[in-house]
Amino acid sequence: QVQVVESGGGLVQAGGSLRLSCAASGRFFGIGDMGWYRQVPGKQRELVAAITSGGTTNYADSVKGRFRLSRDNVKNTMYLQMNSLRPEDTAVYYCKQTITAPSSRSISTDDYWGQGTQVTVSS
Q1: How high is the pLDDT of residue 43?
Q2: What is the C-alpha separation between 27 and 103, in angstroms, rounded?
Q3: Residue 115: CB partners within 8 Å, gap ≥ 6?
Q4: CA–CA separation, 62 vs 64, rounded Å?
Q5: What kind and span of H or E run contains 39?
Q6: Within the chain, how many helices (H) and strands (E) appear?
Q7: Which of 57, 63, 70, 118 is the most buried (most CB within 10 A)?
Q8: At 33, phi and psi to the nearest 5?
Q9: What is the pLDDT of residues 47-100, one digit of tens each?
Q10: Is residue 13 scored above 90 in pLDDT?
Q11: Maximal C-alpha separation, the chain
């Protein structure tokens, strides 16, 4: 069974840094696009950054120049380096990986979400 697990959240002061990781495990054939999303209570989940299988990245305007997304295709892991953090970055961060894996009859490509990790930035 495929699993996607995040790590690296926590509490940090404004201006500080955190690095989030998102690792896929289980039996699968390949990973396509990956992305980080965040959500605060009462608001919709929003895209923070995404990376294609070829390494092309895309960032929300609010994090450009501060966050950097990368992936290690050998370790099946995605990393989000967050610098110059602001209180408005406080949210639960979720990772998503698009993974091709065996299904009951053949193979299937689906989005797999992590459980979420809390990032809190104090002022």
Answers
A1: 96
A2: 10
A3: 5, 6, 94
A4: 6
A5: strand 30-39
A6: 0, 11
A7: 63
A8: -70, 150
A9: 999 999 999 999 999 999 999 999 999 999 999 999 999 999 999 999 999 999
A10: yes
A11: 52
